[in-house]
Amino acid sequence: APAPPPARHLFSDPAEVEALRRNLLAWYDRCKRDLPWRTLAATELDADRRGYAVWVSEIMLQQTQVATVIHYYNRWMQKWPTLQALAQASLEEVNELWAGLGYYSRGKRLQEAARKVVSELAGRMPRTAEDLQKLLPGVGRYTAGAIASISYGQATGVVDGNVIRVLCRLRCIGADSSSPAVIDRLWDMANVLVDRSRPGDFNQALMELGATVCVPKSPLCRECPVKQHCQAWRRKLFGKAPPVPDVEDCGVGDCPLCPPATEPWDSSLGVTNFPRKAAKKPPRVMRTATCVLERRGCHGAPEYLIVQRPSSGLLAGLWEFPSLPLAQDLQEEKEREELADHLQAWMGQPVAAKGLQFIGEVIHIFSHIHQTYVVYSLYLDGDVTLDPALSPSRWVTEDEFHASAVSTAMKKV
Length: 413
Hints:
The protein is α+β, with helices and mostly antiparallel strands.
């Protein structure tokens, strides 16, 4: 069995825990950002509407910066102010509003869960983190804890990327912060720390601290309201202690939370020694041929063909210009031929590879894919009948294209 972590990694002093809570909440009351979901959660008296407002924000904020989310959140809540309104929307409407926000399956799962609440739970949101996670698709441990604590006052902790960074620095946790064993310890800590009388505010304060002060690079340590509780800060100030086991050194070689011996403290990094993460796998490299098919519309304006992606997988259900994944190191002539064959299946008539005009390349970085779109264009003179047996497709004007559920990558194209 792995060795238990020494007490210095934990929050075992009740007086320290209480002081940390008090200092962090006082800072939050003074310095918290004015965000629309906080305003809604604070003013909405109906518990289900309050839970819904927080839920939407937490789903949108996954992997997405606050500044980007605010606009989408305001549009969403204006269009679907209640669970019931969202449950009645179509997936196409959801995708259209979500377009550009990324990680598109989030919107789909959010709507699926709203429909489940309306049809199976009598329109009543689950009230505990355990039930939220068990009953709602797309709601994991963190999101469930955030909704339950902020909306319903459950004294449960939360652990997201910001909280991981704060806790690892507070307690000099240098083991791989993405490992299940370390994540479990961090959840234990979060549940010990959470303020019982203001759990939602405390959790938001901890996340706010990580987002605005205890940031990944160049943290604002002197402005931190809990720096006196931070072991990484003390180590930065006073350097390595004498060779006696103390707060800086566990004194044991197999501590599951200490940095590995091969990665000792780097004094030039200070508190940013923590957290430590495993090296990321390099993104998968992909190339895709994409053709912008253009025709003259009935009113004289140009129209462009877009087709719908499959209902599962990357960018599920979104619309795009006809596209074809390419093998690596394919010669341009062969790329044109394969794309021409692909377009011929759509149009039901021969397409000359030489007629495809090369426009350029567009690079788009997904979380795990380095995607290059090789962009061609083809102007069609005359009527074209599309095969109805293939994926859904339609002709759109430029304005209609931008109003459709298309990805940021296709807007680049």
